[in-house]
Write a structure and sequence with these properties.
Length: 335
């Protein structure tokens, strides 16, 4: 066991917050994980699981033991004419997994190309982009309980997936570490171009292969979302709110062409659009600013986690004052 003390976390979070972990360790096997859990329990150290750090806001001092699981194995569980079932280690880089699945002729992940983070984080917030959510291809999530070291597995149903939601953000929040995810992928090339900009590209260039679609997604993401290496950020900072039909009607009286995605219980409107309409693109809140190209993204230039949360709070308040709509933040607070 290699446990380090007072570890700088700046390079472990894409917002570039200059935080420190009281203790930190990385492990790559379930046996080693169990040893660490036992040690932490004996030493009374709370375990804080950190993934790729692309969806977290770090407090200055993270107390306890920061744990990263780095297993990036790939295991074929079963295969028939139509589908493969593959078990992927939680520590594999998400985009690398997407591209390697495509190169093997396994389809279903192409719309989710170029999302930062690790495989183990994908089920936590049910990552989604360009018309597809990861819940559509996840069969099973395996992990370890942080209090006992006991292993568990959860079926897709049991994960309680919803838009940017799962059981891992609620009942199991801070209680588990995900060790692997089982994906069921198709061997038949199939593409979903329902998302407007992709549909437009398909009309201009013809229906894409899954690999071409992944490349389109990479292109669109690169054009809208800044690279954290250049402009530190955590992707979408706010979730798109679902508002009531009445609220939507009121909004439509004030604005022409409100972008919207009707749901059963109301209408989902892009938080980025709401923020943009207030003229906030490029606006600074101390060291934190709203991205010039996508109002849903906050850029942190040297600020602390508190600075990021303070900026987010001001934006939430401004949205509420202007539209009467409450928006929630997407990244988790890590302290
Ligand atoms: N819009 C604006 N101004 C802005 C941003 C958006 O007017 O500054 C408008 C766009 O013109 C468009 C609509 O809002 O009509 C939606 O924008 P976009 O397609 O860029 O998507 P989004 O709702 O802003 C969501 C996800 C992204 C995902 C994209 C594509 C959430 C919180 N975000 O963003 O996810 O990549 O759709 O599917 O659901 C992430 O979670 O980190 C993330 C990047």
């Amino acid at each position: 066991m290699n446990i380090q003390q007072n570890v700088a976390l700046k390079t472990f979070n894409t917002l570039g917050v200059n935080a420190f972990a009281e203790y930190m360790t990385q492990v790559s096997s379930i046996d080693a994980l169990k040893e660490v859990i036992e040690y932490a329990s004996d030493s009374n150290l709370p375990i804080k699981v950190l993934g790729g750090g692309s969806n977290v806001v770090l407090a200055n001092e993270v107390s306890g033991l920061v744990l990263q699981y780095t297993n990036d194995s790939l295991e074929m569980l079963s295969e028939d004419e139509e589908y493969v079932l593959v078990r992927v280690g939680a520590g594999l880089n998400w985009h690398e997994w997407v591209m390697s699945s495509l190169s093997k002729g396994w389809f279903g992940l192409q719309n989710l190309a170029y999302i930062p983070g690790l495989v183990g984080a994908a089920p936590v917030q049910n990552i989604g982009a360009y018309g597809v959510e990861v819940k559509s291809v996840i069969r099973l999530v395996r992990g370890v309980m942080l209090d006992t070291g006991e292993e568990f597995e959860l079926s897709n149903e049991a994960c309680q997936f919803a838009y940017r939601e799962s059981i891992f953000k609620h009942e199991l929040n801070e209680k588990v570490l995900i060790t692997s995810v089982d994906f069921r992928l198709s061997k038949t090339p199939q593409v979903d171009v329902s998302y407007a900009p992709l549909d437009q590209m398909a009309k201009e260039q013809g229906m894409p292969t899954p690999l071409t679609l992944a490349n389109w997604v990479i292109e669109v993401r690169k054009s809208k979302l800044p690279s954290p290496d250049i402009l530190p950020n955590a992707g979408s900072f706010f979730k798109n709110p679902v508002i009531t039909f009445q609220q939507f009607d009121r909004l439509s009286e004030q604005f022409d062409h409100v972008p919207s995605y009707p749901q059963k219980e109301g209408v989902k409107v892009p938080a980025g659009w709401l923020i943009d309409q207030m003229g906030f693109k490029g606006k600074s809140f101390g060291p934190v600013s709203v991205h010039k190209q996508q109002a849903l993204v906050l850029i942190n230039e040297g600020g602390s986690g508190e600075d990021v949360l303070a900026a987010a709070q001001q934006i939430k308040q401004a949205v509420f004052d202007r539209y009467g709509i409450a928006i929630e933040q997407e990244p988790r607070i890590f302290q």
